[in-house]
Structures are given as structure tokens and as C-alpha cells.
Amino acid sequence: MSTETQSGSTSPPPSLIVDEEQPELTSSPVGTVFDKPREVTTRTKKSDIPSGLWIRCSSCGEMVTNKELEALLMVCPKCQFHFAVRAVERIAWLADEKSFEETDAGLSPVDPLGFMGVVEYSQKLKSNQKKTGLKDAVITGFGQLHEHKIGLAVMDFGFLGGSMGSVVGEKITRVVEASTQKKLPVIVVSTSGGARMYEGLFSLMQMAKTSAALARHMRTGLPYISVLTNPTMAGVMASFASLGDLIIAEPQAMIGFAGARVIRETTREELPNGFQTAEFLLERGLIDMIVHRKNMKSTLATLLEFIR
Ligand SMILES: [Zn+2]
After folding, report:
1. Structure-model confidence comparison of residues 66 and 289, the more confident one
2. Which of 127, 229, 270, 281 is the most buried if burial means most Cβ atoms within 10 Å?
3. By the 8 A CB rule, do 102 and 25 touch?
4. Domains of the chain
């Protein structure tokens, strides 16, 4: 079997993905990373907060201004809770200025199963695209991190909970394969509720596809660093997110496969304190480091220097 056939990524089933190539590149949100709009994405209900100037930390309840939070990379000054952030924001923090070039910006999901629910999948796609300015839940591309050239994929929880459907899997596979060809390290920043149930088996296939691409990448001796952010769960954690040569997490990130309630009901056991937190998993060796967001870029640069 040829490498191309194994990868499954060079010729995706046309029914699963729509590639709207060039026109999207100019309107892609990444183009505006460096003069980015200051839209705040948090889990906090802001309905009782005047005109979006103040945000209540969903961990400690402290009131913080948008401006202060942004200056602190969206980390609560009181309890260090790391707020959810958009993928474009993270890329702006990680990639050297004007170095990031997005790939596959035109890949757009379709509704292969005609999934019907309270809201149809096709409608959910449209509303999430409108809300986030993204085609799907990941941005991929190439850039420099403290002058180290890297392949980079950053997930966005704001798009359908960062769930992995055909487009997410395909884009990550493509950036990994291109990085292997270019002999570059890969960094994937994950945040996800898991596989996208609206695409059924097609979403589960992405677990094998991304894992296979990473296996080939690592066989050539090229590094892969996985960065886990809050939350990274289920099918994403069970595939590319847990396969890093180095696995780094942001503090207090929830990381796991099944949810705590499901595990409790299945095992009929009380779960230990801090179960499924980054800190718990660091103690048990599943992840290698916990790194505060403000130190993430410099730490990644040091690691790239060390393992290249
Ligand atoms: Zn807080």
C-alpha cells in the first residue's frame, strides 16, 4: 500500500469536505491576527455585566475588566484560571509576528448524514461559522516560534465545542504530513469535547487518520508537541492529543476520555479529588509539564531547541 493511500488525506472523499480555496484566504480571521478584533470568548454569563467591560471569573467569582484580562492573556489575576480563547488569539501569542501562513483555510464541512435534531447539523454549521468567522474548529498552518519553523494546528472550542469532524481531522492530518515533508516539528494546541457526533463514523475515522499521520511523522525522528487546554476530552484526547513526544497542559485544564459522571456510573466508584485535571494527570505521568499561558511560547521555544 502506498503512503498516499495509507494517509487517506491526499484525496478526501469529496462528499465530506468542500474545498473553497483561494477566496477564503483573504477573508480568513488569521489575516487579522496581528490587528485582531478584541472579542472576548469566555464561559461566563455576561448578561448582568454592563456593556461587556467586566467579566466574572467562572472559577473564583472575581470581577475583572476585559482590558486587564487581555493584558494577562486571559488569565484571572486572582486565581490564575485560564479562560477559553479563540484560535486566532493563540496563534497571535505563539507565532512570531507576521510569520503565520494559514493552510487549507477553504476546507469547509458538509453534512454527510443529513443529521436531523432539534437543530439540523447544517444549520449548526452555518451559525457556528457566522459566530466564529471560521469554517470549522481548527486553524492550521506554518509559522515561526522564536524563529523555529513549525507546523501548527490550533483548535477553537467556540466552534461546536471544538469537536472533531472530517474537516478538523483532515486539516490536522494535512499539516502533519506537510510538516513531515518539510522536516519541521509539529505543535498541536487542542481543546475539544471529542469527536463530532453529527458526522457519525466519519468523525471517528479522523482518530485513526490523524494518529497514522503522526506515527509516520515521528518515525522520521521529527518532534511532535501536544498542548492540552481546557477542556481536551474524548476522541481528541484518545487520538492526536495524547500522542505527543511531549505533552504539555495549561494549569487546571480538564483532560480525559469519558466524562466523570459516566465513569462514576460505570465503575460505581467514587472518583478521587481533582480527577481529570492537568495536575492530577501530571502526577500520574500522563502529561509531562504544566505550563502557565504566559510562559507557553518561551517554554515551547526551549523545548524545540532541545529536541530538534
Ligand atoms: Zn479567578
Report:
1. 289
2. 229
3. yes
4. 3-8+28-35+84-307 (3.90.226.10), 42-83 (no CATH)
